[in-house]
């Protein structure tokens, strides 16, 4: 099993708008809109940073309640296995592929789909994996039941879940890839 991280070659891997101040993040987002207008990131609205911070607070709280180990305030984002759709987000796409065995799984949380729609009040379809954070063992059961979203919904025709998002709550493995 592999974890993937997609990014723009010009920026490099594991950059996060929530790991910097809100003022800096707004400047970076404005710069992306100017320099990379055809990237998916350029389409983010003005409230994106605050929405992402709110979502991270939920992820952190729910994962801590399950006994997860949290060593960084803002997680590093990855996905479980390859997502063809995510590779289209960037004008100059690249990715890292890291075996899950390189991570301490006690420092990984998962959402079945992107965490933003997973916790969005706008998504009310009653699916059992909405508004839930999973541990590694728990997400394996969800995968056994539903499969990988990118295998049955890469185009998004069946809902917002297109991949399994992974939240890496430690920099120990990540730092060797930066």
Question: Can you put this structure into words, describing what you see?
Answer:
Helices cover 29% and strands 16% of the residues. It has helices spanning 22-35, 48-65, 115-118, 136-146, 149-152, and strands spanning 2-8, 76-80, 93-99, 108-112, 164-168. It has a 5-stranded antiparallel beta sheet, with helices on one face. The chain is built from 5 helices and 5 strands, in the order βααβββαααβ. The chain is globular and about 40 Å long. The chain has 178 residues and is an alpha+beta fold. The two termini are 21 Å apart.
The geometry reads as globular
Number of helices: 5
Strand content: 15-25%
Strand order of the largest sheet: 3-1-2-5-4
In quaternary terms, these chains amount to: single chain
Average pLDDT: 91
* Alpha carbon gap, first and last residue: 21 Å
Helix/strand-derived category reads alpha+beta
What is the N-to-C order of secondary-structure elements (H for helix, E for strand)?
Answer: EHHEEEHHHE
Query: Would you count the extended β strands for me?
Result: 5
Helix-residue proportion: 25-40%
**Rg over CA atoms:** 16 Å
Largest sheet: 5 strands, antiparallel
Contiguous runs where pLDDT drops below 50 for at least 5 residues: none
